[in-house]
UniProtKB/TrEMBL annotation:
Catalytic reaction equation(s): DNA(n) + a 2'-deoxyribonucleoside 5'-triphosphate = DNA(n+1) + diphosphate
Organism expressing this protein natively: Coptis chinensis
Keyword set, alphabetical order: DNA-binding, DNA-directed DNA polymerase, Nucleotidyltransferase, Transferase
EC number: 2.7.7.7
Listed GO biological process terms: base-excision repair, gap-filling; DNA replication proofreading; nucleotide-excision repair, DNA gap filling
Entry GO MF terms: 3'-5'-DNA exonuclease activity; DNA binding; DNA-directed DNA polymerase activity; nucleotide binding
Protein name (Swiss-Prot/TrEMBL): DNA-directed DNA polymerase
Superkingdom as given in the UniProt entry: Eukaryota
Length: 146
């Protein structure tokens, strides 16, 4: 497991899943000469996440449980969401972190819908017909192994 994930054996026992996944993503990114940005602890606190706690107890009528375990990976694979496909645009900055799409391409084509996916929060990602992201590939390979 340590060899596959690229982490020391001690991490397998003392750390969570995130370090194992991030280690593998960093390895894949390095092979493609890409850099994954780091997130500061304070940046995570500004996100508006809603976590619902389960209400434990006995229920006489059947209840439904929803399996969200595969929801996020499915969305990431379907819409090619990846660090390397993110297009960041502002008045002062046009940054395309991508292998095949250059800033000139984006300006030239003015972000045609056939080339990008826009999220509900307005992030823009290159579609897989231009470039398949590292994260979607990684997730697909991980699922095929399980």
């Amino acid at each position: 497991m340590a060899r596959v994930t690229g982490v020391p054996i001690s991490f397998l026992l003392s750390r969570g899943q995130s370090i194992k996944v991030l280690s593998q993503l960093l390895r894949k990114a390095k092979q493609k000469n890409l850099v994954i940005p780091s997130v500061k602890k304070g940046d995570l606190e500004t996100t508006h996440l809603k976590v619902l706690e389960a209400k434990t107890g006995f229920y006489e009528k059947p209840i439904t449980t929803l399996d969200f375990t595969s929801l996020y990976p499915s969305i990431m694979m379907a819409y090619n969401l990846c660090y390397c496909n993110l297009i960041i645009m502002s008045e002062a900055l046009l940054l395309v972190v991508s292998l095949k799409v250059t800033p000139e391409d984006v300006r030239k084509f003015n972000l045609p819908p056939k080339c990008v996916n826009k999220t509900p929060s307005s992030e823009t990602f290159v579609k897989s017909n231009l470039q398949k992201g590292i994260l979607p590939k990684f997730l697909k390979n991980s699922w095929s192994l399980s």
